[in-house]
Structures are given as structure tokens and as C-alpha cells.
Amino acid sequence: MSVAFWVLAVVAVVAGVMVFVVDSMARATFALLASLLAVGGTFLLIDLRYLGVLIVLMMVMEMMIMAIFMIMYMMNPAGLMPMKMVHNNRAAAIIAGAAFVLLAAGALLTPWPAAKGRPGGDPTHALGLSIMGPKMLVMMVIGVAILATMISTVVLATHKGRYDR
Hints:
single chain, mainly alpha, 72% helix
């Protein structure tokens, strides 16, 4: 399990760096997808099945939608033509370095409380209850409505439309 964790960690970091190294939107999209799939796999390794599957499903759908919009609206076909992906390198490096230092200092200097007792039965269920509480049914219905909206949008956006056979 530790070998799989390190493989997924390396894949996530390398693919995340590739998002900023490659020279086209399509390649950056697929690198981002690979990175986030590795993160989802990591969640699956630590027995957070619901969150792992949720990350995988959301990222696959999100990247599909991004690819569809790239093909539809970009001037270069499918975002495959080379383009400069990073702008204002100096300011971006300064801001990223400052954000890293602040976040690292916050993580290292915070007096974290010691764990007391053992966690409950299913950590995913407990997390869902603490985040959603009594609104879980509403969120499930909204999720189905959003899925239906995405499917109908793709159907209506096709060249032939919904009435052409």
C-alpha cells in the first residue's frame, strides 16, 4: 500500500507540474486530469471510498466538459496548437513563493490539538453528516438535477439537436 501511495503521489505532483509546462490547453487539461485522478486514487487507498470516487467522477466529468468547450470555442482546433500557458512569470513566482511560505508557517507553527479517543465507525459517513447534516436529501436531489442538466445541455448542443434522427 505504501508503494502505491508513493507512486500516486509522484504521478499527482509530476502531472500537476506538467499542467504548467506543456504548451497547449488540451495537454494541460489531460495533465490536470491525470493529477486529480491520482489524488482520487490516494483517497481510495486511505479508505475514503466515497470521497475518492467523488473526486474521480467529478474530475472526469469536469475535464470532459472543459474539452467540449475548448473544441467549441477556441480559435485553434481543440486547444492543440502551441501557446504560452504562463504569463507574468516573475509576479507569479513571487506570489506563489509567498503563499507557500505563509501556508507552511501556518501549518508548522499552529499548536495542533492532540487526538483523543478513537474515531467512530465510518469516517466517510461521519464527515458527510458533519458537512451536510439534515440537508443530505436536498443535496442528493440537487446532484441528480445537476446531472440531468448536464446531460440535456450536451444533447441540445449537438449539431443535429434533439429532434433530428
